Amino acid sequence: MKYIVSLFLLLMVLFTGCKDDDNTHEMQIAKALKEKELVFSTINKTWDFAPRTLTPEAQAITNNWSEWRLFTSELYQKPKGTIGAFQRKTKSLTLKLEVLNNTIPERINRPQIKSRLMAIITKVKALHTFINLDRIPEKKVVILITDLNVELMAFQDQIEEIVRRSHIQREEGEQEMLNSLNGSAPTNGSSEKDTKNIDYQ
């Protein structure tokens, strides 16, 4: 009889322990889901990328650069529903960025454009990494989204600057001065009529 009572008590202890484990596990799952909901809400509020109005000439350059157009089109479409939508979005953006460095239009293919583009690529890749962690570092993600917005504006400002500088007229004799600085042979017969647009680097 003692054996049966002891066995019964042992089974009761095991059953109670399992029940407590199940309750703890359910509470942990509920807590994790709540955290993900809060993170999603914060990221959803911060993810605010919108097309910017450029001058017609700069706009034409970005419109004709199909790889850039595909990247920004993807960026401007805000993910909906869950944190998983943002994870898929950053993956897609990362893939679209891979080809940008090798497809820069000739007119804006300058070191400053490449460095600005590299900053954008770095931010997107970091964003993709952090947003795919089990415990998403919410503050870091928010900072990266904000910084990415700043980098996009700076990149587009740089395009505008290249376009603007390309319309500045050279002064008389400026070509000869540039040639001598570059070690080139001087050109003959420069006059005001021969002024050309500067294509600043």
Helix content: 55-70%
Mean pLDDT: 82
The shape, in one word, is: rod-shaped
Distance between the termini: 96 Å
Q: Strand tally, please?
A: 0
Secondary-structure element pattern, one letter each: HHHHHHH
**Class by SSE composition:** mainly alpha
Low-confidence stretches: 189-198
Estimated share of beta-strand residues: under 5%
* Rounded radius of gyration (Å): 29 Å
Largest sheet: none
Assembly state (oligomeric)? single chain
Q: Helical segment tally?
A: 7
Question: Can you walk me through this structure?
Answer:
This protein has 201 residues and is mainly α. 69% of the residues lie in helices and 0% in strands. It is built from seven helices and no strands.
Question: Descriptors for this entry?
Answer:
201 residues; mainly alpha; 7 helices; 0% strand
Short description:
The protein is mostly helical and 201 residues long.
Question: How would you summarize the topology of this molecule?
Answer:
Layout: H1 2-46, H2 56-64, H3 66-76, H4 83-97, H5 111-131, H6 138-165, H7 174-182
